[in-house]
Amino acid sequence: MTRFGIEEEFLFVDAHSLTPVTLAAGTRERITRLRTGGEVTKEYLTSQIECLTEPVSTATDAETQSTHLRGLIGWHAREQSAIAAGTGTPFATTRSSAVSPSAHYDDVASWLGHLTRDHEVNGLHVHVEVLDDEERVRALNRVRGWLPVLLALTGNSPFAGGRDSSFSSWRSILIRRLPGSWSPPRFRDFDDYRTQVERLVDLRAITDPAALSWAARISDRFPTVELRVFDAQLTAEDAVFAAVLSRAIVLTDEQPHGDAGIDGLDASLWTAARHGMDARIIDPTTGAVAAAWAVADRMLAVIASTLRDLGDDERVREGIARLRAVGTGADRQRRALDRGGTPMLARLLAAGTPAPVA
User: Fold this and answer.
1) Taking Cα atoms as reference points, which of 151, 337, 132, 345 lies closest to residue 242?
2) Which has the closest alpha carbon to 158: 8, 349, 332, 341?
3) Which residues in 106-254 belong to E strands, given as ranges?
4) What SS3 state is found at 4?
5) Which of 1, 2, 27, 34 is nearest to 12 (CA)?
6) How far apart are CA 275 and CA 189, in angstroms?
7) Nearest-CA neighbor of 122 among 86, 152, 82?
8) Helices 133-144 and 236-251 sit at what angle, rounded to 10 degrees?
9) Would you call 159 helix, strand, or coil by DSSP?
């Protein structure tokens, strides 16, 4: 069975103000020494941390590892009166997060310049194993059209500067400021892909292929297609739902498609970031504009047989039912703030990284 892996970025925030806080000295070092079902690594800012599952074949294994890693960082966060928050952007910020010590991160900070000061963004990245170079390009071309509806389903960053941004995914808007972001172009073959990436490096628009911010790309480190369109998710269940959708899309090799063009895809990503599942986006099977829920239903019909073959159909049905009942992460964050202010929002964020029961 085709393997996949999940990379989740988290932000340590103060348990009361919900502003980013620097991890206490030695915290990341203590966590990263543990290698039990995945690993924890440092991220770009000292307030961030990343959890990576091992390559897995089943959704159950992915959720087990994600839950374990979330519990690990949640416990360390509570030690310093903080929350390890699975959210695309913080509720509020002091713009005081420092760049993590690293020659690579120093290069990125120099490249980003002033953008670093409010680049407190956290994503969910899903790697799907595809061993052949040319098949990875074909899979990437298949994925492109579904990126807007995937973002609409998983928007989870509604706040900016302590206020409602009016966006479902404010993280996506911040990412848009970077070159090589949002929808990738369509590629003829693997050589075309490498040529276009190398051109961005030659332009000094990106520091290296690992700095690409496309919502989907071919991994520079692994034989995978990497979907990066997702905000960090509130729960392990939400993250695995996004991951199994990603795997099924990558593996469904016969898909009807209408040509939305790069402008149409980017416009659809913007409306998905703005309105979530209330957005109107382009249906990649027809090229026509449709409601996000209609496009989601079309996507599920296209990948239905792949989901059944992988044993993920029931999990996806449950995930869609959950979204219809309680909304996206952005919807849940807004509802928590409306009902109980920042204390209730803090409880919602903390529930996603619960400390393990002794």
Assistant:
1) 151
2) 332
3) 123-129, 159-160, 163-164, 181-182, 213-214, 216-218, 224-231
4) strand
5) 27
6) 34
7) 86
8) 110
9) strand
Give CB contacts under 8 A, 24+ apart, made by 22-29. 22/46, 22/47, 22/97, 22/98, 23/47, 23/49, 23/76, 23/80, 24/79, 24/80, 27/76, 27/79, 27/80
pLDDT interval class at 27 (50, 70, 90):
low
Single-letter amino acid code for the residue at 353: T
CB atoms within 10 A of CB 120: 24
Alpha-carbon distance values, 307 to 31, 144, 321 (Å)? 35, 19, 16
Closest CA to 353 of 154, 150, 83, 48: 83
pLDDT, one tens digit per residue, over 40-56 is 877 667 788 899 999 99
**DSSP notation for 224-289:** EEEEEEEEP-SSHHHHHHHHHHHHHHHH---------HHHHHHHHHHHHHHHGGG-EEE-TTTS-E
Distance of CA 314 to the CA centre of its chain: 22
Read off the DSSP letter of residue 90.
-
Q: What is the DSSP letter of 71?
A: H
pLDDT in tens, 86-132: 999 999 987 666 766 666 666 666 777 767 667 789 999 999 999 99
Ramachandran assignment for 232, one of left (phi > 0), alpha (psi -120 to 50 degrees), beta (any other): beta
- Give the span between the Cα atoms of 229 and 155, in whole angstroms: 9
Rg over CA atoms, the chain: 19
DSSP for residue 102: -
Measured in residues, the chain has a length of 358
Report the distance separating Cα 131 and Cα 136, nearest Å: 7
Tokens representing residue 108 in the block: 């990125």
Question: For the stretch 198-207, what's the b/e string if a residue is b when 16 or more beta carbons lie within 10 angstroms of its beta carbon?
Answer: eebeeeeebb
Distance separating alpha carbons of residues 331 and 308, to the nearest angstrom: 29
Cα–Cα distance, 113 to 142 (Å, whole number): 34
pLDDT digits (tens, 9 = 90+) for 288-334: 999 999 999 999 999 999 999 999 999 999 999 999 999 999 999 99
